[in-house]
Amino acid sequence: MAAEPGSVRPGGRTARVRSAVLAAAGDALAEHGMAGLDLADVARRADVGRTTVYRRWGSVPALVADLLADMAEQSLPRVETGSLLEDLLANARLVRRTLVDPRQGALFKAMIAAAACDDRTAEALHRFYAARIAEWAPCVDQAVERGEVPPGTDSHEVVRAVSAPLYYRFLASGGPLDEAVARRCARAAVEAARAGVFVSD
Question: Name one GO molecular function term (predicted).
Fold first, then answer.
């Protein structure tokens, strides 16, 4: 039985098709939101056959799920500086840059909005953020080993505490997302961690 398009030969034609389609889907989402995402339009933008897109992905939620998986794979790795504050500041800066980027910010807004009313998109978004948090959690584990924060500190909760205020400003309050805010988020998370706020019961 033939393999699914996009599932074999890394670096081959299927990989190139997947890359082109996901880039086109991201552009369409950033421009028009989830309501304007159409598989035929994505195929046109990617310059691939419609049958290829429909056969490989089949639905808009499936395409968005694959786009999120690809974004998780392509995300920058964590920074390790030997200091929890500097590590978490690097994380805060990365999140801030993503959210203020015109294309990336619009893309995330569209996906978050879609996740509120589509279970498959929500699951894909949860997997994306779980992967990113898991990537940065070792920074906190290393800080525990160095004695910077107490044993039993929940590393995932510390990382979430860095990005949560940034997303609140991005989605709800409309407050500025500048370097000062990124620094404040990182410092607040570190101080709370040092105080034992994130120690598991």
Answer: DNA-binding transcription factor activity
Range(s) of the chain covered by CATH 1.10.357.10: 75-194
Paired strand residues for 199: 153
Q: How does DSSP assign 117-153, residue by residue?
A: T-HHHHHHHHHHHHHHHHHHHHHHHHHHHHTSS-TTB
Residue in 135, 71, 137 with CA at minimum distance from that of residue 104: 71
Report the distance separating Cα 161 and Cα 81, nearest Å. 19
**Residue predicted with more confidence, 201 or 94:** 94
pLDDT in tens, 85-115: 999 999 999 999 999 999 899 989 988 988 8
Q: Are 97 and 55 in contact (CB under 8 A)?
A: no
**Residue ranges of the chain assigned to CATH 1.10.10.60:** 13-59
- Tell me what the pLDDT averaged over the chain comes to: 89
pTM (2 d.p.): 0.83
Which ranges constitute the DSSP H helices of the chain? 13-32, 39-46, 50-56, 60-74, 84-100, 102-115, 119-146, 155-168, 179-194
13-59: in CATH 4.10.240.10: no
